[in-house]
Design a protein that fits this description.
Layout lengths: L1 E5 L4 E5 L12 H66 L3 H10 L33 H13 L1
Length: about 150
């Protein structure tokens, strides 16, 4: 390869031979050791990939199981809510006055009150409330002035 340099006014061409550096040759033992390390890394990478894949598969299996359980519980909830509505409707229909009176007399041993047990209250008096005149709170200055005037009299 020729290099151009400038001197006075003309180019001076110099021929420079490229030098090549050779990498030091590795010994057979170090090459085998490097190959062994590479094989170990590849094996470890493969094992790690399988462990990660197995973990993901287990996670998805657990999620599927939980999802199936949630769906079963939602179906059970819907069924129980329907039964609850039917029970509430049956309770509302059982609130008949004749039914309540019959249960009170037969099961609870109650009886109708006699004429002597009934007391009537007169509701003719009207409710009333007494309003007290509202006093405006006096300011501290007016209270002071009133106190001074009372002292001077």
């Amino acid at each position: 390869m020729a290099l151009a340099t400038r001197g006075s006014s003309a180019y001076q061409l110099e021929v420079v031979e490229p030098t090549t550096t050779q990498a030091p040759k590795r010994s057979a033992k170090s090459a085998k050791a490097t190959q062994a390390k590479l094989k170990k890394r590849v094996a470890f990478g493969i094992v790690a990939a399988f462990v990660i894949a197995f973990g993901l598969a287990c996670r998805f299996a657990v999620l599927t199981d939980i999802n199936a359980e949630v769906n079963a519980l939602e179906k059970e909830l819907t069924l129980l809510q329907g039964q609850n509505k039917q029970t509430e409707l049956a309770i509302e229909q059982s609130y008949d006055l004749k039914t309540v009176e019959e249960i009170a007399i037969t099961k609870l041993g109650m009886s109708r009150p006699s004429k002597a047990q009934i007391t009537y209250i007169s509701m003719n008096s009207a409710d009333y409330a007494e309003v007290i005149g509202a006093q405006e709170p006096s300011a501290w200055l007016s209270r002071l002035a009133n106190g001074v005037l009372a002292y001077l009299r």
